[in-house]
Structures are given as C-alpha cells and as structure tokens.
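Protocol step 4 of 5: obtain the predicted structure for the target chain.
Materials: sequence only (see below). No template structures provided, no constraints applied. The aim of this step is simply to have a reference model before the mutagenesis design in step 5. Sequence pasted as it appears in the construct record:
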Amino acid sequence: MPILHDVQAEFGHISEDAIREIAGLLNLTRAEVYGVVSFYHDFRKEAEDRPALKLCRAEACKARGVEQLVGVMETAAGDRVKIEPVYCLGLCSVGPAAMVGGKVYARLTKEKAAKLVAEL
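Step 4 output (structure tokens):
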C-alpha cells in the first residue's frame, strides 16, 4: 500500500507499467497488485487533470445538511474541479465535511463550500 500511495503521489495515477514493475519487485502477480489498485477508490488508473474534492455523503453528514451543499459545490466546480462522493471521512460530529489532498474541512456551510471550491 505505501508503494502504491507513493507512485500515485508522484505520478497522479498508477499505470499498467507501474503495476507490472511493482508486481515484479514484490514477487507478486500483476493480478494481485491490480486487485488492490482497483479495490481502493483512492487509487486512479488514469491521470486526472482537475483537482479533486472528496465530499462526505454518509448518513451523519446528510443529517448535518450536506445535501444542501451539493448543488452549490457542483455549480462552483463546473468542469474545473472534480467532486467525488465518499462515504465517511471520520468527522461525523463536525460535518458536513470534505477533503482535498489530505486536508479536511469541517462544518461546511454553503458559503464555506463555495469558497473552498473556488479556491481550488
């Protein structure tokens, strides 16, 4: 897992060539490495040009109003920011929550959410 995270951090995705090389170095099959890459949603098989914002859509954040933020964030994002739904960032008591590049944002309001997207 740490190797996959490092490859993705460096290149923005994990290519077929990288899967082949990692498998060889770790004495694993390509299928074993690919299984991990395809199972975890954080790993990408293709590069993404846009910044990604992970928006928690789990029950606790729904109860705290995340659904009212979705339209505002999608409008602010347009085609330049990718809004990815995730199901729990572990910030249930301070939701609605989002994460960008490992940094978390809590207690989002419509204004805070629009500003966050605009700054990406």
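Step 4 remarks: DSSP finds six helices and four strands in the chain. Residues 16-26 form the longest helix (11 residues).
Proceed to step 5.
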